[in-house]
Every structure is written in C-alpha cells, then in structure tokens.
Amino acid sequence: MFVTRIPNRVSKAHQTLRCQRTLFDRLRIVSFLDYLVTCTHPQHGVMAASAPSSSGGEPDPNSTNLRPPGTSYDAWCGVAHGCTRKLGMKICGFLQKNNNLEEKISSFKERSSKDLLDNSDRDSRFRRTETDFSNLFARDLLPAKNGEEPTMQFLLEVVDILTNYVRKTFDRSTKVLDFHHPHQLLEGMEGFNLELSDQPESLEQILVDCRDTLKYGVRTGHPRFFNQLSTGLDIIGLAGEWLTSTANTNMFTYEIAPVFVLMEQLTLKKMREIIGWPDGEGDGIFSPGGAISNMYSVMTARYKFFPEVKTKGMNAAPRLVLFTSEHSHYSIKKASAALGFGTENLILLNTDERGRVIPADLEAKVIDAKARGCVPMFVNATAGSTVYGAFDPIHEIADICEKYNMWLHVDGAWGGGLLMSRKHRHKLSGVERANSVTWNPHKMMGVPLQCSAILVRERGVLSGCNSMCAGYLFQPDKQYDVSYDTGDKAIQCGRHVDIFKFWLMWKAKGTIGFEHHIDKCLDLSHYLYTKIRNREGYQMVFEGEPQHTNVCFWYLPPGIRDMPDGQERRERLHKVAPKIKAMMMESGTTMVGYQPQGDKVNFFRMVISNPAATRSDIDFLTDEIERLGHDL
Amino acid sequence: MFVTRIPNRVSKAHQTLRCQRTLFDRLRIVSFLDYLVTCTHPQHGVMAASAPSSSGGEPDPNSTNLRPPGTSYDAWCGVAHGCTRKLGMKICGFLQKNNNLEEKISSFKERSSKDLLDNSDRDSRFRRTETDFSNLFARDLLPAKNGEEPTMQFLLEVVDILTNYVRKTFDRSTKVLDFHHPHQLLEGMEGFNLELSDQPESLEQILVDCRDTLKYGVRTGHPRFFNQLSTGLDIIGLAGEWLTSTANTNMFTYEIAPVFVLMEQLTLKKMREIIGWPDGEGDGIFSPGGAISNMYSVMTARYKFFPEVKTKGMNAAPRLVLFTSEHSHYSIKKASAALGFGTENLILLNTDERGRVIPADLEAKVIDAKARGCVPMFVNATAGSTVYGAFDPIHEIADICEKYNMWLHVDGAWGGGLLMSRKHRHKLSGVERANSVTWNPHKMMGVPLQCSAILVRERGVLSGCNSMCAGYLFQPDKQYDVSYDTGDKAIQCGRHVDIFKFWLMWKAKGTIGFEHHIDKCLDLSHYLYTKIRNREGYQMVFEGEPQHTNVCFWYLPPGIRDMPDGQERRERLHKVAPKIKAMMMESGTTMVGYQPQGDKVNFFRMVISNPAATRSDIDFLTDEIERLGHDL
What we know:
The structure is a homodimer. By secondary structure, the first copy, chain A, is α/β, with parallel strands linked by helices.
C-alpha cells in the first residue's frame, strides 16, 4: 500500500541535518566506548568481547540509525562509570583539596548502578539519540509495533525545533518576520512545498516542513511585535497548551474531561468574583473567541426576554433593537446579522472624541426606537475598544438599561484584563451591574490563543437558551453528578479545552502576576504617549492620556509637516502609515497596526500586551517609523 | 511584589521529584568528574586544580541547582573525552576484533572538540540538566533576564511528562482512566489543589500540577477508549499542535499567519476536489467544530436565498423551514434556535429502521410546509449519523432539493472521512450535489481536536454572508494581495490555527494513509459486528451490516435473556448499559458509549476511530462487558 517516495528536497533536508550528523557520529563512537567499558566490567569480563559489536562498526550513512532503546543515556553513564574505575586512582595525585575523592567516587559507583535501575526507563527514553528520519514514516510511529522509540525521538526532534524557535522569538537580533507574498510561498520557497499528495513524506521531510512553517511565519511573541491585541508567548501558557494537545479531549462532559471541566468551573467563578458578582454566582463558558462570546451575550439576552424565540423563531418577537458604540468591535454587528436581528436593527451610538459612548445619545436612541415601535433589548458597552482602547461609562449606561429594562452586556474582550489590576480596574467601574461580560484572557492577560470567556450574571439562562439534551451525550442516568456535564450550555458540541493553559498560568503567576503584567503594559504605553505627544513629526489622534495601552498617532514625514490642512495633505497622510508598515514588514524589524477611523485618515495604533516588550522596544519602534517614514 | 510562598504540597512534590533528585546527585558527581578531567587536560594541567570548585563540593539540597548554560552535555563529552585519553591503552588488551581502536579514538578526539564548537549552542540547550524548580517561578522564565536556561529546562521537563504520558497512553497495561467523582477532585486528591490563589506557585508545583492533571484525566488515545467519535492520539497531529501552540498566531489575516492561511486554502481546495466539485472550486473555512460548521451552512443558505436578512433580520423573510433527520446531530436544532428560525421550524424527517432518511417523507413534508404557507429552504442530509452511523441517501434528497429549490447541506462531520476511502466513499454518493458540506477531520481522520471544515460549493456566498469589513483588520491598502485575508468570512474574529496539524498529517500519511486508517477502522467494526451478531447475550439494535463503524447492541445478562418481552424486561434492560458503563469507569479498563434512541432503551454504541485499536481490544471490550454485566 505504501510506496517509499524519494523526498523532493533531499539536498535541503540533508543540509539541515548535517550538523546533527556529526553529533550522530560522535554518539556512535561513544556507543562504541560504551561497548569497551562494558567489556571491562567485572561481570562481563573479556567474554563479552567476542560478542558481535554492531555499534562498534564503521558508521554506515545509509543505514537506519535507530539505536535500540536505552543505549544513549546509559552509554554516557557507562562511560563515566567505567572511566571512574580506572581513572580515579590516576588523577588523585593531581588534587590537593579533595580529600574525600575516593569516597565520592565509590559512592557514585554504588549509586549509579542503583539509579540506572530506578531511572533507566525514564532516562533512556528522554535522551535524544541521533535518528535517521529519512527512512521513517508516520506509519512507523505509535501505535505501530516497535513504534515507541521512533515516536519519542521524533517528538524530541520536534521539541528541539520548537525550543529553538522559542529562544529566537525572544532574541532581538532576530527578525519579527521574513515576509513573502502569497504567490512566492505558493510557488515553493526554497523547496517548501505546500501542496498535499497521495503518498506519505518521510519524517525527515516532515521535520523540515515544521522548520519551514516557522521560518516563514510571524513571531507573535517577539518583543517588537505590536500588531495585534494578542501578542507575546507565555512559557507557562505554552506548556499548558502542549499538555492540552497531548490530553486531546473534549469539554462536553465530565466523563471525558473531569479535571478540565472542574478547572473551567472554578476559574469562571473566580472571574465572576473579580467582576464583583456576589459570591461569584452566575454562569459562563469558554468559547472560541470574543466574537462568539459576544454572540452568546445577544442570544442569552434574547432568551431572557423572549424565550419563545428558541422554539418559534424571531417572528414570535416584536422588532427588537440592539445598541452598541460606533467604536465597538464588529462582532456585535456579525452577531446581529447571524442571529436574525439584522444589522439595521443594531443602532450605533455616538461617542465623544475619545471614543466613549455618550450615554445621552443612548437614551435618545432608545426613546426614538420605542417611538418607532421597536423594542430596545440589548446594549453593549465596550470596555477597551479595539482602536482607541476606550472604556464606555458603564454606570451611566447601566442606569439607562435599568430604566428601560434592557440587557447590559460589557464587551471586555480587550479591556477585561484590567480587572486584575487594582490600579486600573476602576476603568470598568460598574461592570458588576452588567448582565453578561466578555473577557478574553488571550488578549491582555497573555494567555495563548484561544481563550475567551462569556460570563452571565443570572444562572440558568445560558443553559436554558442553548440546551437540547442530546441523549447520546448527556445521559441522565450516569453514575456521577451530571450537573457537571456542562457541554449543553454551548452552541458547540465538541469544545476545545481552552481552560488549562489559563488555569496553569494563574497557578504559576498568581493574581498578582497578572496584575504586574497589566500594570507594566500600561506603564509602557504611558511611556510611549509621553514620549511622542509633543515630539516633532507626531500627532495624537485624540487628546489626553489613553485609557488602555492603545496609543493612536500619525507620523508626519518632514515633507508634509508644513503643508496646510486640506484634502491634499489628508490624502498624502493617509498613505504614510500603509507605506511605513509595508517597509516594516519587508525589513521584518517590527510590526504595528494602522487603520482609518471615521473621518480620520490612516493612523498607527500601537497596542502593548506583550510581556517581552521594554522601553527600548518602544524606542526602537519610533526610531523605525522615523527611519522608514522620513522621506515619504 | 512577589512573595515566595511555601508550596502547599512540598511533601508530595518532593516525593515526585525524589527519583530525579538522585539523578541530580549523579549529575553533580559527574560534573565533579568533569572537573577532574579538566584538571588532567594538558592545556590546564595541575594549575586548574587549585581553582575553587563549587560543582565539586558537597551537594547542598537547599541550593538552587541551576547549572550554568552549557555544562551538562559538555560535561559528559568532557568525561568521555578525558577518559579516552587515559583509558584507551588500558582496555586495548581486552579486545580481539577491533584492530582500529586507536584510530577510532584518535578520530573521536579530533572530532569531538570541533563538534562541540559546532554544536555547542544547539546541544547545550537541548540537553536537560537537573534543575531545582522549587525556587523558580514563572517570573524567572523568558522574557526575564537570564530566563533562557530555566525556560528551556522547564519546557524539557514538561516534555518529559508529556512523552511519558504518550508512552503510557499506548500501553495496554495502563488504565484508560482513574475515575473520581467531582466532589472528590474538588476536595483535592492527594493534595491536587484546583483552587486559584493570589500568590504564584513554584515551577516545581506547576510540574506536579501538570502530572496530576494528566493522572486524573482520561486517556482518549488509549487503544481501549471507544467512548466518542474522536479518539486516538496521532503523533504527527500532536507534533503539529505543539508547533501551532508555539507559533501562537491567529488566522484572520495573511499578515500574521501567511503560511497557515495558504495551508488552509490548499487543504480546503483538496477537500473540495475529493467531494467532487469541479476543479475543487468553491469556498470554505475551518471552524471550531461541527456544530459551528453546521451553523455556517444554515446561515449561508439563508444568505443565498434571502440576503436581506443580513441587514433587516428574519422579519424580512417569509416563514422559513428547515429539514433534517430525526437521527441527525443536535447541532442543526441548536442552529435553528440560535439563528432565529426556531426549533419548531426545523422539521424532523422519518427514517428507516437503519436510521436513514426516507426521501418520500421529505417530499411529503415539503409539500405540507408549502401548503401551510412556509418556505422550505434548507435540507440537512447526514452522512454518518451520531448513533447509528447511518448515511442518508444523498442523491434522492438532492433530487427533491433541486425540485423545490432548497439548499442541500451534507453533515459529514462523522462520515466525511469515508470520502478518503475508495472502498467506502460510495456511501456518500451524491455529496458532489450538495451546496455545502461539514467534514470534521478531528473525528474519523484522527486529527487532534479541534479540526472541522465547512465547505461551500458556490464562491462568494460565505463571505457575502459574514463580511463586515472592519477597517482595523482588513485594510484594503496593504502591500500584498488582500484576497488572502480570509478572516472576514468567519463569524469569529480571532480564529485558532486548526489547519496545521491536519496539513502536517496529510503530508506525513498521504491520502493513502488516511484511506488505510479508515479502511482499518471499518474492518474492525465489521469484525465486532460479525462476532456479536449471533452471539448469545447480544442483540443488535438494527439488522444488517452497519454503514459506518457504529455498532449498536444490547448486552443481555443471563438473568433477563429468557424474560418475556414487556415493560419489566425493558426497564431492566434500560439499566444494564449504564451499570456496566459505571463499572467500566470505576475499574478504568475501557470506555464505550451508550444511549437510548427513540423508543429503544439504553444500548451500547461502539464506534471505532482509534488507530491504536486492534481485534484484541475489541475482544477485550466484549469480554469486559460480559464480565461486568454477567450478574446484573
């Protein structure tokens, strides 16, 4: 069935593995020494010397170099062990300070054989031996017979690639990215072939593919990557995600995810406590991102007010309207389209010059909607808007929601993390009055993607809204308390384990660790703001200290600084940020986002969520903008 | 800011690390030997012996045992290297067969110093040194200053835990699970404390937490885990997921996920080719599971027929009805509730005794709905139903869809994988006539969770339905071809990279590798079916060979085999599967699902998607059912 195909990139793969090959040769010789040492062992004596010694032969570059299990680490120990027997006496004379050498060596000898017994299984597996992957295929890995050793070696080789990537990610002398256009990558960069085929590739090729995938990607954990709200590479979170992948289970029932289900419940409760809901009561679930969390909030609100929509559809309800800021995230709009409200029934609220909702505008629009025969049902208050980082005034919005009996949702996907900071959480003051909150730990808290929570104040609405009681998953006659089978609350069936990395980070950092991270990011954005607000060539998009880490600014190349305000200047300025960004990406030195907003032409939006970033990286960014933009 | 807290589980953590501690002591002594060897080196001579030797001192159990970078592997080499100088001549006499020993040793000596230079960076990093994690915290890891070495050591320690878990997963002498009730885990099993606190835990505690998390979880890759449609632990997929976590990026733009975006496009095209759409044309996206993929299909259909719903809501459309089998997955029902159709407007279709839709029933219900003034819009045909594994007759359903101008969706979440098999793909005959298809590689194809695709035949509908053109993500003035910014097609904003593990598996196995896996699973279910269909004590839920790997059966303990059919027998039989399942979980030997269906009392649903399963595991399952159920 399987045909071994000649790898299409043999030369490159060989090149890549060349430096490992020398190591392999070395290990072979050490293995040979191991053999010699074994021969000198009293229990084996010279007898063993007549046994065939395949590991002592000439290295054969064409052979499958899989060493039998247990030889690598044992070999080293054997060398050391054997050596000490003969070497100990010889070198004693050289030493003045170590009077207890004999004792140490003797103790080592005694211990080492015992330890080898205790740890042989563990250690022999962990140590990477040099393996020729060019003749190995996926079918040779577990669960294949004798698949354990190649599996371990393959995984360790992958880990080597990944740990090297991790190291380089934090190394400022590496690029953030090595940019190529789509057509270039599709044509196959240096043999990196993205096309899929009928026949398998060797594991050697797979390893090369892994390296290439990372090589042509973007280092989102690099200290100078500022392009998105989610940046950074948290090591604990990474470890958590590796474990999650290894556990490879599903959140729908306690039955197959007991630990993760409990972690989710405890963590959600903790988040609700931090929001300020009494005793952390309420409900919630982790969802595949803030957009889905926001969608949950609209669905849950609708179910609360018009439960009959679940069975009868939107025709059973009056014409419902939703409210959100013109600066809010587009997911509210996506939800209103998807859930059958229609984007025209999502009413956009005016904001002040800082991007914060004007409560009076909300009330006026509520009154107007009612007058038109619509039913105002849902208000989204943004805590940390995407571009400006603005926090809507929750208390004032909550007053209006109470007055007109509307559901208050707080979209804290970006700003929710500030709840962890005693210094900054006042920006979400009033969040405890919300009926639901979106909070993405994968943004400001540095948790790896994906990790987003929807939290609901009233217990029962979420499950009432979504449960369908499928008999093949949620059997009522299980032997355990089935209230822990939380999957029926979700609009998903299978649900990825997003909780573990977050739980593990919380354990490892403590609440104060998150607080420290958030305070540090806000300090850095303050540094940037104070640095550029009066600097020549910069113009702030809005006045005053930003509320979040978003610092929005135009860079004005000297050529347009003195131009009179007007259409021509606007048109030229509009092109500056995209041009600088393109050059940044081509040179790969740093990345920062830009966009227009309303009638404002393209400006840079700097955001800081990256724990690796320092003031020097901020300085680097501004220097880079000036370097690249000076002559535009 | 940070306070070092005494770990609350010191005794356990120490116990767990005890075996490592002895290894650590050994390493210390080896390091000491290294020092001795250095002293004998001609370039250092006896001079070096007078230098202070901290590594040669008495092991101090309280010290932070972090070795400086580069000492571990080098130490071993040093020992071996030094040893050979003195040892070589001594042991020559013992050897008969190796005439070229001197040459080998000399060549090794020459090579090793050069290699150490070439590989020093690589190897010193990769090699795990014994590290005392009890005084290390998350804050000591990268990006902390000097954080590289602890980061590498921490990650390698985690990998050690994970690779041990992987090995045990495939070991039939281990349990599938170690079951505990929620309250037991919440109370803290052997000190496994799930609660989160303000202060950080040491990395030692974090490692113990990782071990405990796996210990109390369920080995979904175990050869005897048959509980869900997603089983197994694919090593290539696992490696892919580890890489994905390390890259930690987001699918919304080409800008930050260039390689992954292209991989997604190419893979989706390949899938469309396999479905049979001309030239693989069409559209699609990976979504967080089959339920969301099915939701996409309904949204897309609605947009195709009533695009005004996007802006005006469901009130702009007539009363729309959807059709699906009574055996179909509950996600169709969830979608009809969420999207504003209402579950009552989802009309359930009758099936034959094998769980396949009866096309005539569809047509009759379409006609009836029209007569009631409704507009039939969408039909879901299931390819591989959840419980019976039934394949609806797609061609006959497609005929009716064409006749009445309805969208045909094929939910191949479970059965889609059979398209990869030349032997079994006929079961989806007609799928090329579908307007959209759900296909979950994370089920039958063994890809780690989550990996689900929604594929749409007509290009443009998916993006038309969902795009909102957010200016801060999808800037039209980027320097590259922005048609590769595919994120606006999604209802999500941030989107996890689900493609890479699948792409990598396809590379590693080839199309034929997937085919082989699928054929093997179906062979195994055939084996089970033929084994039990006439076996005493078993009764099949439906007659005839199953279409998919689902084998549905009752086990009848001797005590009820001769009971007359009737209410009492039904009630007793209804309790058998839950009781056996509970005992299975308590003993941890295997796991298989059960459920009622319609008027049929609880029965076992065996499904095989696990590549590790063999006939002996099938035999084990039936033996176990008989052992546990015999006296019920």
